[in-house]
Amino acid sequence: MRRIVFLGSPGAGKGTQAAALAQELSVAHLSTGDLLRAAVAGKTPLGTEADGYIRKGLLVPDDLVVQILRERLDHPDTSDGFLLDGFPRTLAQAELLDRFVPLDDVIAFEIPEELLIERLTQRRLCPVCKTVYNVVTAPPRIAGHCDRDGAALEQRSDDLPDAVRTRIAVYHRQTEPVLKFYQDRGRLRTLDARGTPEEVRARLRALLGLPATP
Ligand code: AP5
Ligand code: MG
Protein backbone atom coordinates (compact mmCIF):
# COMPACT_ATOMS: atom_id res chain seq x y z
CA MET A 1 0.00 0.00 0.00
CA ARG A 2 1.49 3.32 -1.05
CA ARG A 3 -0.23 6.69 -1.40
CA ILE A 4 1.70 9.18 -3.47
CA VAL A 5 0.93 12.75 -4.55
CA PHE A 6 2.57 14.45 -7.54
CA LEU A 7 2.53 18.25 -7.53
CA GLY A 8 4.03 20.52 -10.17
CA SER A 9 3.22 23.00 -12.87
CA PRO A 10 1.33 22.16 -16.05
CA GLY A 11 3.65 20.30 -18.41
CA ALA A 12 6.18 19.37 -15.70
CA GLY A 13 5.86 15.69 -16.71
CA LYS A 14 3.62 14.43 -13.89
CA GLY A 15 1.33 12.37 -16.12
CA THR A 16 4.22 10.85 -18.07
CA GLN A 17 5.96 9.64 -14.91
CA ALA A 18 2.74 8.72 -13.09
CA ALA A 19 1.51 6.34 -15.77
CA ALA A 20 4.70 4.24 -15.69
CA LEU A 21 5.16 4.33 -11.92
CA ALA A 22 1.56 3.45 -11.06
CA GLN A 23 1.73 0.44 -13.34
CA GLU A 24 4.99 -0.72 -11.79
CA LEU A 25 3.76 -0.29 -8.21
CA SER A 26 0.31 -1.72 -9.07
CA VAL A 27 -1.45 1.31 -7.65
CA ALA A 28 -4.25 3.31 -9.29
CA HIS A 29 -3.20 6.37 -11.30
CA LEU A 30 -5.71 9.05 -10.34
CA SER A 31 -5.43 12.11 -12.56
CA THR A 32 -8.18 14.61 -11.85
CA GLY A 33 -7.46 16.15 -15.26
CA ASP A 34 -8.09 12.78 -16.97
CA LEU A 35 -11.24 12.21 -14.89
CA LEU A 36 -12.56 15.66 -15.81
CA ARG A 37 -11.75 15.21 -19.51
CA ALA A 38 -13.57 11.85 -19.49
CA ALA A 39 -16.61 13.60 -17.96
CA VAL A 40 -16.39 16.32 -20.65
CA ALA A 41 -16.16 13.70 -23.42
CA GLY A 42 -19.08 11.78 -21.88
CA LYS A 43 -21.13 15.00 -21.74
CA THR A 44 -22.15 14.35 -18.12
CA PRO A 45 -23.66 17.36 -16.27
CA LEU A 46 -20.44 17.68 -14.27
CA GLY A 47 -18.34 17.47 -17.43
CA THR A 48 -20.41 20.12 -19.18
CA GLU A 49 -19.96 22.46 -16.23
CA ALA A 50 -16.22 21.78 -15.98
CA ASP A 51 -15.54 22.22 -19.71
CA GLY A 52 -15.71 26.03 -19.71
CA TYR A 53 -13.16 26.30 -16.91
CA ILE A 54 -10.78 23.77 -18.47
CA ARG A 55 -10.80 25.42 -21.91
CA LYS A 56 -9.85 28.76 -20.38
CA GLY A 57 -7.09 27.20 -18.29
CA LEU A 58 -8.84 27.96 -15.01
CA LEU A 59 -9.27 25.53 -12.12
CA VAL A 60 -12.58 23.71 -11.91
CA PRO A 61 -14.43 24.60 -8.66
CA ASP A 62 -13.35 22.51 -5.66
CA ASP A 63 -16.75 20.91 -5.08
CA LEU A 64 -16.88 19.45 -8.61
CA VAL A 65 -13.32 18.12 -8.47
CA VAL A 66 -13.81 16.62 -5.02
CA GLN A 67 -17.01 14.94 -6.17
CA ILE A 68 -15.35 13.31 -9.18
CA LEU A 69 -12.35 12.19 -7.12
CA ARG A 70 -14.52 10.75 -4.33
CA GLU A 71 -16.40 8.65 -6.87
CA ARG A 72 -13.10 7.39 -8.29
CA LEU A 73 -11.69 6.58 -4.82
CA ASP A 74 -14.68 4.30 -4.22
CA HIS A 75 -13.44 2.05 -7.02
CA PRO A 76 -11.86 -1.14 -5.58
CA ASP A 77 -8.61 -0.70 -7.54
CA THR A 78 -7.56 2.03 -5.09
CA SER A 79 -7.43 -0.39 -2.15
CA ASP A 80 -3.72 -1.17 -2.81
CA GLY A 81 -2.83 2.52 -2.92
CA PHE A 82 -2.85 5.30 -5.48
CA LEU A 83 -0.85 7.94 -7.21
CA LEU A 84 -2.64 11.28 -7.23
CA ASP A 85 -1.65 13.38 -10.25
CA GLY A 86 -3.05 16.92 -10.32
CA PHE A 87 -4.76 16.90 -6.94
CA PRO A 88 -4.64 18.76 -4.58
CA ARG A 89 -4.12 22.10 -6.30
CA THR A 90 -5.88 24.52 -3.98
CA LEU A 91 -5.37 24.93 -0.24
CA ALA A 92 -8.98 23.83 0.37
CA GLN A 93 -8.31 20.57 -1.52
CA ALA A 94 -5.08 19.98 0.43
CA GLU A 95 -6.80 20.54 3.77
CA LEU A 96 -9.61 18.18 2.83
CA LEU A 97 -7.22 15.44 1.72
CA ASP A 98 -5.22 15.90 4.91
CA ARG A 99 -8.29 15.26 7.03
CA PHE A 100 -9.35 12.04 5.31
CA VAL A 101 -6.36 10.32 3.67
CA PRO A 102 -2.87 9.60 5.06
CA LEU A 103 -0.14 10.17 2.44
CA ASP A 104 3.22 8.41 2.12
CA ASP A 105 4.99 10.61 -0.42
CA VAL A 106 4.44 14.16 -1.66
CA ILE A 107 6.68 14.94 -4.63
CA ALA A 108 6.90 18.35 -6.31
CA PHE A 109 8.18 18.37 -9.89
CA GLU A 110 10.41 21.42 -10.42
CA ILE A 111 11.08 22.76 -13.88
CA PRO A 112 12.04 26.13 -15.40
CA GLU A 113 9.05 27.92 -16.90
CA GLU A 114 10.61 28.36 -20.36
CA LEU A 115 10.46 24.58 -20.97
CA LEU A 116 6.74 24.35 -20.25
CA ILE A 117 5.11 26.24 -23.13
CA GLU A 118 7.03 24.17 -25.67
CA ARG A 119 6.23 20.86 -24.00
CA LEU A 120 2.54 21.66 -23.73
CA THR A 121 1.92 22.99 -27.21
CA GLN A 122 3.76 19.95 -28.63
CA ARG A 123 1.71 17.43 -26.61
CA ARG A 124 -0.72 15.03 -28.27
CA LEU A 125 -2.99 12.55 -26.53
CA CYS A 126 -4.64 9.27 -27.50
CA PRO A 127 -8.38 9.70 -26.84
CA VAL A 128 -8.76 5.92 -26.39
CA CYS A 129 -5.93 4.72 -24.10
CA LYS A 130 -4.80 8.22 -22.89
CA THR A 131 -1.16 7.66 -23.82
CA VAL A 132 0.66 11.00 -23.91
CA TYR A 133 2.98 11.86 -26.80
CA ASN A 134 5.05 14.84 -27.77
CA VAL A 135 5.50 15.61 -31.46
CA VAL A 136 9.15 16.47 -30.80
CA THR A 137 10.39 14.61 -27.71
CA ALA A 138 8.12 11.53 -27.70
CA PRO A 139 6.57 11.13 -31.17
CA PRO A 140 4.42 8.13 -32.12
CA ARG A 141 5.83 5.64 -34.65
CA ILE A 142 3.24 6.71 -37.26
CA ALA A 143 2.67 10.47 -37.21
CA GLY A 144 -0.71 11.40 -35.73
CA HIS A 145 -1.64 7.87 -34.58
CA CYS A 146 -1.35 6.04 -31.27
CA ASP A 147 1.27 3.25 -31.12
CA ARG A 148 -1.03 1.07 -29.03
CA ASP A 149 -4.39 1.26 -30.77
CA GLY A 150 -3.90 3.33 -33.92
CA ALA A 151 -6.45 5.98 -32.84
CA ALA A 152 -6.02 9.50 -34.26
CA LEU A 153 -4.16 11.61 -31.70
CA GLU A 154 -5.76 14.79 -30.37
CA GLN A 155 -4.60 18.06 -28.87
CA ARG A 156 -6.07 19.07 -25.53
CA SER A 157 -8.35 22.12 -25.68
CA ASP A 158 -6.20 23.75 -22.98
CA ASP A 159 -2.87 23.17 -24.75
CA LEU A 160 -3.32 26.23 -26.97
CA PRO A 161 -0.98 29.14 -26.13
CA ASP A 162 -3.55 31.42 -24.38
CA ALA A 163 -4.85 28.67 -22.09
CA VAL A 164 -1.30 27.48 -21.37
CA ARG A 165 -0.31 30.96 -20.19
CA THR A 166 -3.39 31.13 -17.97
CA ARG A 167 -2.67 27.67 -16.49
CA ILE A 168 0.86 28.69 -15.55
CA ALA A 169 -0.42 31.89 -13.89
CA VAL A 170 -3.12 29.91 -12.07
CA TYR A 171 -0.48 27.48 -10.86
CA HIS A 172 1.55 30.30 -9.29
CA ARG A 173 -1.50 31.86 -7.69
CA GLN A 174 -3.50 28.87 -6.50
CA THR A 175 -1.24 25.82 -6.38
CA GLU A 176 2.07 27.17 -5.07
CA PRO A 177 0.43 27.72 -1.65
CA VAL A 178 -0.23 23.95 -1.63
CA LEU A 179 3.52 23.31 -1.92
CA LYS A 180 4.04 25.56 1.09
CA PHE A 181 1.30 23.69 2.96
CA TYR A 182 3.27 20.42 2.66
CA GLN A 183 6.63 22.11 3.16
CA ASP A 184 5.45 23.63 6.45
CA ARG A 185 4.52 20.12 7.58
CA GLY A 186 7.90 18.70 6.54
CA ARG A 187 6.28 16.49 3.92
CA LEU A 188 7.41 18.00 0.63
CA ARG A 189 10.22 16.49 -1.45
CA THR A 190 11.28 18.14 -4.68
CA LEU A 191 12.21 16.43 -7.92
CA ASP A 192 14.38 18.01 -10.60
CA ALA A 193 12.09 17.45 -13.62
CA ARG A 194 14.54 18.68 -16.29
CA GLY A 195 16.15 16.30 -18.78
CA THR A 196 14.79 13.30 -20.62
CA PRO A 197 11.84 11.27 -19.27
CA GLU A 198 14.35 8.46 -18.47
CA GLU A 199 16.57 10.82 -16.48
CA VAL A 200 13.57 12.14 -14.54
CA ARG A 201 12.38 8.61 -13.92
CA ALA A 202 15.77 7.61 -12.48
CA ARG A 203 15.71 10.60 -10.08
CA LEU A 204 12.13 9.83 -9.09
CA ARG A 205 12.99 6.22 -8.32
CA ALA A 206 15.90 7.29 -6.13
CA LEU A 207 13.65 9.75 -4.28
CA LEU A 208 11.06 7.04 -3.62
CA GLY A 209 13.70 4.52 -2.52
CA LEU A 210 13.01 2.17 -5.44
CA PRO A 211 15.77 0.08 -7.05
CA ALA A 212 17.50 1.82 -9.97
CA THR A 213 16.00 -0.48 -12.62
CA PRO A 214 12.34 -1.56 -12.53
P1 AP5 B 1 -4.31 18.40 -15.74
O1 AP5 B 1 -4.73 17.41 -16.75
O2 AP5 B 1 -3.93 17.92 -14.40
O3 AP5 B 1 -3.18 19.27 -16.37
P2 AP5 B 1 -1.93 20.04 -15.71
O4 AP5 B 1 -1.72 20.00 -14.27
O5 AP5 B 1 -2.04 21.37 -16.30
O6 AP5 B 1 -0.73 19.21 -16.11
P3 AP5 B 1 -0.49 18.58 -17.47
O7 AP5 B 1 -1.28 17.32 -17.61
O8 AP5 B 1 -0.66 19.62 -18.54
O9 AP5 B 1 1.07 18.29 -17.39
P4 AP5 B 1 1.85 17.02 -16.87
O10 AP5 B 1 2.73 17.47 -15.76
O11 AP5 B 1 0.97 15.85 -16.62
O12 AP5 B 1 2.79 16.77 -18.14
P5 AP5 B 1 2.85 15.53 -19.16
O13 AP5 B 1 3.49 14.36 -18.51
O14 AP5 B 1 1.57 15.33 -19.87
O15 AP5 B 1 -5.48 19.48 -15.52
C1 AP5 B 1 -6.15 20.04 -16.64
C2 AP5 B 1 -7.25 20.97 -16.18
O16 AP5 B 1 -8.24 20.22 -15.43
C3 AP5 B 1 -6.82 22.09 -15.21
O17 AP5 B 1 -6.33 23.23 -15.90
C4 AP5 B 1 -8.14 22.37 -14.49
O18 AP5 B 1 -9.02 23.10 -15.28
C5 AP5 B 1 -8.71 20.96 -14.31
N1 AP5 B 1 -8.27 20.32 -13.06
C6 AP5 B 1 -7.55 19.17 -12.94
N2 AP5 B 1 -7.31 18.87 -11.65
C7 AP5 B 1 -7.92 19.85 -10.92
C8 AP5 B 1 -8.00 20.12 -9.54
N3 AP5 B 1 -7.42 19.31 -8.62
N4 AP5 B 1 -8.70 21.22 -9.15
C9 AP5 B 1 -9.28 22.04 -10.04
N5 AP5 B 1 -9.22 21.87 -11.38
C10 AP5 B 1 -8.54 20.77 -11.81
O19 AP5 B 1 3.94 16.15 -20.19
C11 AP5 B 1 3.65 17.27 -20.99
C12 AP5 B 1 4.31 17.09 -22.38
O20 AP5 B 1 5.74 17.05 -22.21
C13 AP5 B 1 3.95 15.78 -23.10
O21 AP5 B 1 3.92 16.00 -24.46
C14 AP5 B 1 5.11 14.82 -22.75
O22 AP5 B 1 5.30 13.83 -23.74
C15 AP5 B 1 6.29 15.79 -22.65
N6 AP5 B 1 7.29 15.40 -21.65
C16 AP5 B 1 7.05 14.85 -20.41
N7 AP5 B 1 8.22 14.67 -19.77
C17 AP5 B 1 9.20 15.13 -20.61
C18 AP5 B 1 10.62 15.21 -20.49
N8 AP5 B 1 11.27 14.81 -19.39
N9 AP5 B 1 11.31 15.77 -21.53
C19 AP5 B 1 10.66 16.19 -22.64
N10 AP5 B 1 9.32 16.12 -22.82
C20 AP5 B 1 8.60 15.60 -21.80
MG1 MG C 1 -1.13 15.50 -16.79
Low-confidence stretches: none
Bound molecules: BIS(adenosine)-5'-pentaphosphate, magnesium ion
Radius of gyration: 16 Å
Total strands: the figure is 7
How much of the sequence lies in strands comes to 15-25%
- In the CATH scheme, the class would be Alpha Beta
**N-C termini distance:** 18 Å
Question: Into which percent range does the helicity of residues fall?
Answer: 40-55%
What can be said about this structure in brief?
The protein has 214 residues and is of the alpha/beta class. It has helices spanning 14-25, 32-41, 45-56, 62-73, 91-100, 114-121, 161-184, 197-207, and strands spanning 2-8, 28-31, 81-85, 105-110, 123-125, 132-134, 188-192.
Polypeptide structure, described:
The chain has about 210 residues and is α/β, with parallel strands linked by helices. It has one domain: P-loop containing nucleotide triphosphate hydrolases (Rossmann fold), CATH 3.40.50.300. The chain has eight helices and seven strands. The strands form two sheets. The protein has a five-stranded parallel β-sheet, sandwiched between helices. It has a two-stranded antiparallel ribbon with strand order 5-6. Helix 2 crosses helix 3. The longest helix has 24 residues, at about 160-185. The radius of gyration is 16 Å and the shape is globular. The protein starts with a strand and ends in a 7-residue tail after the last helix. The mean pLDDT is about 95. It binds BIS(adenosine)-5'-pentaphosphate and magnesium ion. The site of BIS(adenosine)-5'-pentaphosphate (AP5) has 38 residues, from helix 1, helix 2, helix 3, helix 6 and strand 6.
